[in-house]
Structures are given as C-alpha cells and as structure tokens.
Amino acid sequence: MSESGYTYLDTYRYERKFVVEGLERDFPETAIKLHSAGFYEIYHERYINNVYLDTPRFDFYYDNVEGRSERIKVRVRWYGEFFGEINNPILEIKKKSGVVGTKESFKLPGFKFLSIEDTNNIINSINKAQLPDNIILVLENLIPSLANRYRRKYFLDQTGDFRLTIDDEIVYYSILQRGGMVNEDNKVVIELKYDSDKNELISKVVKFLPFRLTKNSKYVTGIEAFYSVVD
Fold it and tell me: Is residue 199 a part of any domain in this protein?
C-alpha cells in the first residue's frame, strides 16, 4: 500500500473458488504442496476479519446471486484479533466485470471494535478518512450488513503466476440481527488467483487439484445464513 494509503490492483484477475467439506483439515494443504506446479507457503498464516457494507435493500447481495456482469463488494478488513483496538483497518472496494475482478484499497483511521454493536465506530472511521470523491459516492447510504472471520494460508507456484489461499475456521456474525453467529468449522475454501493474461495456462494447474471448482462467495453465504433476503 502506498504512503498515501491508497492501492489499486491495476490489472484484472481471475479468482477461482474450490470448497472442501467433510475431509481431514490437513488434506487441502497437503494436496497443494504435492502439486506439480511446486506451490510453497509465502506468508505466515493469519486471521482475516471483515465487516461488509451493503444498501438497506441488499443490492450488492442481489447483484451477486443474480449474476450481474458488473458488481461490487465493499468491506472493511483488518488482521489479527477480531475485537479490540483496530490499528490498521483497510477499506476495500472489489469490482467484478464478468468473471474477472480488480480491487481498490484505502487506509482507514484506527477504531475500537469491542462488540458487533460497535459498527458506528467503523462508520466514523470511514467518515474521517481522506477518500476520493468517487469512493464517497459509492459509500453513500451503505450500512454494515455482515461480519466474518477466518484463518488464511498463502501459497505461490514456482512461476510466480498463480497464488492459492486456504481459508478455514470460518465464522459469520449477524450485524442486523444482533448476536447471531454461524460457525462453518467443517468447510475449507480455496481460492486460486491469477492475472487474466494467464488464463490459457489455468487448465494445467486445475487438473492436478483434487477439488471441485465451484462458485462461492463468503458474503452471500453469510447473508443467507441469517436473513430471508432470498425469498
């Protein structure tokens, strides 16, 4: 992230998802390390925390489940402990165009997050940030809709073109229905990420992964765990 607190992913990339359920927790990591592409761990594992923002009518949710070609996702992310003094939060705007996406990230002032009810502190942090006018327009009238937390491990292949992440210990927290929590301890989500110009090489990577390629959105999963918006 730049000194100005802003980063922009200047290329569109693919994010392929795999969901593994009902197997030994170590199996996905073992399979990835045995892959012929030579995946190796590139970063220490860490916990990722997100608070998602959406319109009161869940427009971002519906754009996703209805498969709209142009859609966005807005979240505040931080690492480490879920509750407490949050010192390095980041506002992320993920944009999807068809099957590829990009991301803008902005540093936010720190805030206290002592319970799910502390979302006002998150909104205050966003309001204090020096954000571009176009981002302020995106955020207008959005409200915190969902929180989640999971553990992530990071892997890179020998060419440096393909990155894999493994997410487990996934927990969802209801914000609009205070106090709700759903634990997906039996699920592992694997994401394969690569630039769009490497798509012609992806079949060689995927065919040696013993997982089923599927559509998966943690935001959609979390919303549907708590709210009847799908009715």
Answer: yes
Model pTM? 0.92
- Count the domains in the chain: 1
Q: In sequence order, what E strands does the chain have?
A: 6-8, 13-21, 40-54, 70-79, 84-86, 90-97, 100-107, 111-113, 143-156, 163-174, 181-184, 187-195, 213-214
Sign of CA dihedral 125, 87, 226, 223: positive
Q: Encoding tokens for residue 178?
A: 């205070």
Domain membership of residue 231 (yes or no) is no
- Locate 35 and state its tokens: 């892959």
* 1 in any annotated domain: no
The CATH number for 68's domain is: 2.40.320.10
- Supply the range of the domain harboring residue 74: 6-226
User: Side-chain half-sphere of 179: how many Cα atoms within 13 Å?
Assistant: 0
Return the SS3 of 182: strand
Is 200 inside any structural domain? Answer: yes
The predicted-structure confidence for 45-62, as pLDDT tens digits, reads as follows 999 999 999 999 999 999
Q: Is 117:3 a contact under the CB 8 Å cutoff? A: no
Average pLDDT over residues 17-22: 91
